[in-house]
Amino acid sequence: MDVALLLSKISVISGVVPLLAAAYNYKGLDRLMKTLSLFLLISSLFDFGQWLAFAFKPYTGHPLNTNPLLHVYVTISIIFFGIIYYNLFRNSILKITTLILAASTMSIVLYYARHPFDYPSVSNTASSLLLIVLSLIYFYQLLNPQTFIHIEKQGLFWFNSGVLFYSAVNIFLFMLFSKIPDKDKADYYVIFSITNIITNLIYSVALLCKPQKKA
């Protein structure tokens, strides 16, 4: 079996892992982690939909165009992560900053959604940049706590790590994907598949963490 195809299948299947973690530890999840679980459920459905579209290739001669779904997915992700980070930040200035950045990114996404059948390269890049900025700001907040905490035992630490890892690795792929020749895209998509698998594992760790008492 082709390596790219195999990793693509594993990537889709890996989306189930954090959902199982969320189901196992559901009573131990706070409101924000439950919000994350809902987003991951939606994300796994989108991944499965794209996989199904590709599975039709042997019958149609080419995979179905799922770019309209990608435009919708980017829009949904900005809404979910905007809500999560808005509630994570303690500082009112950072909350307002989150709203401004999310609204600005959303305006870019909606502008490029005028062409739903084109790959949302700019939209994905803008979304990744937004998440990189928000995750770095939240890391700063985590590393400057008002009381001592074991951040490595905090589910939100692992969640934020997953967001930063996924966005930082994929941003250049998103930026250049529409310029890559079609015959070479499968090779580059391997990067996304591996990143998605690792990110889902990181999210699983986040969802399995128990609430920690502050010292």
Question: Which features characterize this protein?
Answer:
about 220 residues; mainly alpha
Descriptive overview:
The protein has 215 residues and is an all-alpha fold. It has one domain (3-56, 63-208). Helix content is 76%, strand content 0%. The chain is built from nine helices and no strands. The protein has helices at residues 3-14, 16-24, 31-55, 57-60, 67-88, 92-112, 121-142, 155-176, 182-208. The N and C termini lie far apart (52 Å). The mean pLDDT is 89.
Number of helices: 9
Q: Rg to the nearest angstrom?
A: 18 Å
Strand residues, percent: under 5%
Order of helices and strands: HHHHHHHHH
User: Mean pLDDT, nearest integer?
Assistant: 89
Described by strand count, sense and barrel closure, the largest sheet is:
none
State the helicity in percent bands: over 70%
First-last Cα distance: 52 Å
**Coarse morphology:** globular
Q: Outline the low-pLDDT stretches.
A: none
Number of strands: 0
Number of domains: 1
Structural class: mainly alpha
